[in-house]
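User: structure tokens for this one?
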Amino acid sequence: MHNSLKAKLPAWFDLEKTAQFILSCQQPDGAIRWFSEGKLDPWDHIEAVMGLSIAGHYTAAKAGLNWLVKNQNSDGSWQASYLSEDSTRIETNFVAYPATGVWHYYQVTQDQAALLEFFPMVEKAIDYVLNLQTSEGDIQWALDTSETLGKDALVTACASILRSIESALAIATTLGLHKPHWLTGYQALSDALRNKPWRFDRTWESKSRFSMDWFYPILAGIYSSEEAQLRLDKRWAFFVEEDLGCRCVSDEPWVTVAESCELILACIAAGRRPQALDIFKWLAQWQDTDGGYWTGYSFRDKVIWPQEKTSWTAGAMLLAADALFKLTPAADILTRRSRFLE
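Assistant:
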């Protein structure tokens, strides 16, 4: 790591050690497993790829993007899970997220050749996802060839998809390409997230007990700073445990590092950097000696749970560090207001 980057970081946070943990989970073909013998899914794979880009491991990050190219289905999708089990499911937010990873890689490296190289992959993926958009703007959460899934949408998944469509639009704009149907789909999904709450959780119990449903729409870039602050204030006491982190669900005594990192990003988007910095400091205690971070901690039982450290959790830490300390030109990729809102 360049000394100028190291000088921006708190002494306790070892960026390179965190990146080395991700590299230890990467396979020779570029795939980044959850851990050395774990599964792989496209969303978490991209989270780890972005961590590698932040840390300056561009060759490894690009290898991760190339893995996606080689494993993309002919219709533009990817399976929801690889390596540890056969998966017949395709989840739309997983399919969309590589667009964010490609745009992030370009923002960090300014490698326009890579942007051209990966655009066909992004184009097929975003077209696949938008083909599953309803007339109300929401997007079907998943398809499965072995079982019939409810036709429904998830707030968190659609918020992630919205940021990914924004990334795809930014890629197209940079390359001088016009994608009006992407913009139309983007605006319809943005409207659904902001104004049509009844389009989500129609066929199952509400997911509002999950912290991601609370803060992730802020990461979609659809709220002003003032609106984001109001959203955070509304449920802060339900989810945030002082000196520990953010709960995964409001009714379980379990904080998780990845959700805490994403809450850091939401705080920054809301203009609350001091709160974001406090949470980041709390997370220092969850790093192990190999550079990885434990997934979560049960504060009722006072135990690490589960007993696993994941590549995507390390990636989330690097994204939070970048957003806080502006290590790369992509520092605000998940915290800025969208440029494509009407």
